[in-house]
Amino acid sequence: MRRFFPEGFRYEFKRSLFRTSTAFIILVSVFVAIASATQVAANPPGAEKMYSAGLFYSDGAYHFEFYAFNQYGSPLSGVNYTVNVTAQSSNTRLANLTGETEADGLVELSTSLPAGAYVADIDAGPQNRGEYWAQGATNGSVEFGPLYAEEVVPLLSPLTAAVNLLIGFSGELALQVFYPAPNEACERGCPVFFALTTDTSGATPLPESSMTSLGTLQSSIQTFSLSIPPRGNSSVSNIQLEIFSPSGALLAMDTNCPASSFNPYQIPDTIADVAFTPFGNDLGLLVPLLAIVLAFAVYARDRVSGVLESTLVQPLTQRSLAMSRLLAVVVTLLLALAIGMILSDELIHLLVGYFLLPSYFLSFYLGSAIVIMFFVGIVFALSHLLRSTAPLIATSAGAFLWFYLLWGVVVSSIEVGSQALYVGTEAAAALQVGVSFFNPIQFSGLLLTGVTDTTPGVAAQYGGSAESWGVTPVALAVAAAAWILIPVVLLLWRIRTAD
Amino acid sequence: MQFPHPTSALLDVSNLSKTFSRAKRAAIDDVCLSIAAGEILGFVGLNGAGKTTTIRIAAGLSKPSAGRVFAAGFDIVQEKARASRHIGMVPEFPNFDPSAKATSLLRYFAGFRGIHGKQAADRCSSLLEDVGLDASGDYKFRALSQGMKKRLALAVAMLGDPEILLLDEVLNGLDPQGIVLVRNLMIRWRNEGKAILLSSHLLNETQLIADRVAILHEGRLIKVLSRSEIAESTSGALRLAIVDVDTRVLEYLATKGSIRSDGISVWISDPTASAEEINSELVRRGYHVKSLSFEPTSLESLFLDLIDESSAKASDTEESK
């Protein structure tokens, strides 16, 4: 141990660690943490978004039944629904139905009209607009007339809806079915089947035998756990859901539920909001900049100005001096980042009521550690390659700009230059995932993908596990080792070979 | 367990060469030096001769292309940390953190020598006093004058009480009081048994204090002279102040040795006759000799002669090729 960390190394490490700049970096991190938490609090992931499902049936009278729910599948009360019924032929208003959802999120609006062709203009919205962020269709128009018994027409949003059963920020995918079967058709339970399909028209009912059972509908609103690995089924765009009567007659069908919503490898939106807004934007930008600034202040400036030589006369080697300061800078930044992130997490919990997902916390921290080690190492190494301050600062800033700002241009250029790859294709997404291994700043995202076994962000629409996109533990370990070691090896090589 | 290199010299420089990358010729070539305990070695040479390069390699700041340096028996390249424990260095241009205070700098460097806490505080204030900076401890480095920076560098070099001191143009930038202070310090260190390598352009000062003088020219060590050898080599010239110096007297004096004259005085280097004999002959010939004295030749003259000789030899060798 003493061989690797001789006395001079330990002394210099401690001296470099307890500098004014350390306190400054920690203060900056705390400031950003507070700013990040405030941002999350301003648009908390827990804020309800309103979804609407509606249907229409006839049993002599005409019944419009609506269900308002939030993104977690919980019913919303007090949502106002209006249906204006006009005659199709004369355009004369015949009825104006209005009502609010109850605690169960349901409201039924009924009217008795003679047999004929009508148009219903539907408008749904919260009673106190602004309380909820409406998501999905909240108004529409439908033509209707006499229906046969048990026929149900979906209105507004589909009959089915994908919801996240959220516990904190972690999501469990589920399918919520809204079907208040008229005429007690499902009193004994209606079998629900689903199939993966490319057909969105809903014109082709499938036989039970070619579908997969989801369960039995026992109430008008029921939630079924459902996850579909779409990788390998990338042509599948939708879920076709069919509800049968106990006797086997088709009661209702819906093909408007996108299969991608049930990709278990996709991070729920709510988590992505939290994950990538404050940390990704603020700390993600700040971490490499702080690494460059601190590495310059602690080592590179002294190295370039020649001040370091006064220390090199002391009983320690140049390698010890460089490595002790490098380690001190890295430890300082990791400490500051940990303090900042923990503080931010606590503040978010205080303000919003949720803690960050541990997997996200870990991924972001480890990813940032890689970024820190890379940029610190690069500045240290550059100080042994460049002899004056201006080129050193310019090159360090250039490295940051290259990886942080110009990377998108680089990737696009590769895509455009590859005849076979076009932006928006699965091959282009695969290329983007592969290329992101060559950018340390994107390592947090890759780690998050690997740790949570989710689809990489750039390929979200195609689904699939992290491993199926090449984000394997070995690939992550090799990339991490490369980003840490390349600058350190360059630094040690320069120390060894320099005059 | 590592054992020091067996040598009687505290600083042993053997066959040291250095060629910088992209340089056409070697900065130093096959330099051999050794300094024993209680010895001051003057290190002289023209600008660019390779003095600073040699000192930087000896201090472990630069790597040799060939050859080795042992400090107290430890190889400065292979065992840098151990070797550096025995070395204190004052560079030609001391360069410390400009915003650090003198006391803080001293305390920082003291830590490398294992001196901490109160011991460090005491040691630092005592050293500042030794170099005459006791009233300037709170000054930032950037606020110090060139001479004060040199003094601070001296204090830093003395922190660990090292046996070897490498002083690169330490006298440059010092006021007369500072020169005397450093001279006295060097004498004290020599008496304490330290080995001192003193690089300087001030040859008279060097001659005054050095036990030996090594002359470096174009990267090569052309001569190492002991104090007695210097005394012998600078056996001197007979200076005669004569009224009405004419060609006849100069012709006569030229028969007694090599001469030079400024029209009033005549210097005879290495005279073949005694002063009394020459004086008698001049009186006999009717010349009035106002004064007669013996002036030793300065190290400066000797140095320039050696440099000329070395350059001539080098050009002869070049021509013969």
Helicity level of chain A: 40-55%
Q: Estimate the strand proportion of chain A.
A: 15-25%
Give the H and E element order of chain B: EEEHEEHEHHHEHEHEEHEHEEHEH
Of all chain pairs, the largest interface belongs to: A-B, 23 and 29 residues
> Nearest-angstrom radius of gyration of chain B?
24 Å
Question: How many discrete structural domains of chain A?
Answer: 2
* Physical arrangement of strands within the biggest beta sheet of chain B: 6-7-8-3-9-10
Radius of gyration of chain A: 30 Å
What does the overall shape of chain B look like?
globular
Describe this structure in words.
Chain A has eleven helices and 16 strands. Chain A is an alpha+beta fold and about 500 residues long. Chain A folds into two domains: about 5-45 and about 270-499, no CATH class; about 170-265. In chain A, a hairpin with a 5-residue loop joins strand 3 and strand 4. Chain A is elongated, with a radius of gyration of 30 Å. Chain B is about 40% helix and about 25% strand. In chain B, strand 12 (about 260) and strand 13 form a beta hairpin. In chain B, helix 3 crosses helix 4 (about 115-130) and helix 4 crosses helix 5. The mean pLDDT of chain B is about 90. At the A-B interface, helix 1 and helix 4 of A face helix 2, strand 6 and helix 3 of B.
Explain the layout of strands and helices:
The complex is a heterodimer of chains A (499) and B (321).
Chain A: H1 7-17, H2 20-42, E1 49-58, E2 62-69, E3 79-87, E4 93-100, E5 106-111, E6 118-126, E7 133-134, E8 139-144, E9 152-156, E10 160-167, E11 170-178, E12 190-197, E13 212-217, E14 221-225, E15 238-244, E16 250-258, H3 269-305, H4 308-312, H5 318-352, H6 358-385, H7 389-404, H8 407-417, H9 426-436, H10 443-452, H11 473-497
Parallel strand pairs in A: 1-7
Antiparallel strand pairs in A: 1-2, 1-9, 2-5, 3-4, 3-6, 6-8, 10-11, 11-14, 12-13, 12-15, 15-16
Chain B: E1 11-18, E2 28-35, E3 39-45, H1 51-58, E4 66-71, E5 74-75, H2 80-84, E6 87-90, H3 102-112, H4 117-130, H5 146-158, E7 164-168, H6 176-191, E8 195-199, H7 203-209, E9 212-217, E10 220-226, H8 227-233, E11 237-242, H9 247-254, E12 258-261, E13 265-269, H10 275-284, E14 289-295, H11 299-320
Parallel strand pairs in B: 3-8, 3-9, 6-7, 7-8
Antiparallel strand pairs in B: 1-2, 1-4, 4-5, 9-10, 11-13, 11-14, 12-13
Helix pairs in contact in B: 3-4, 4-5
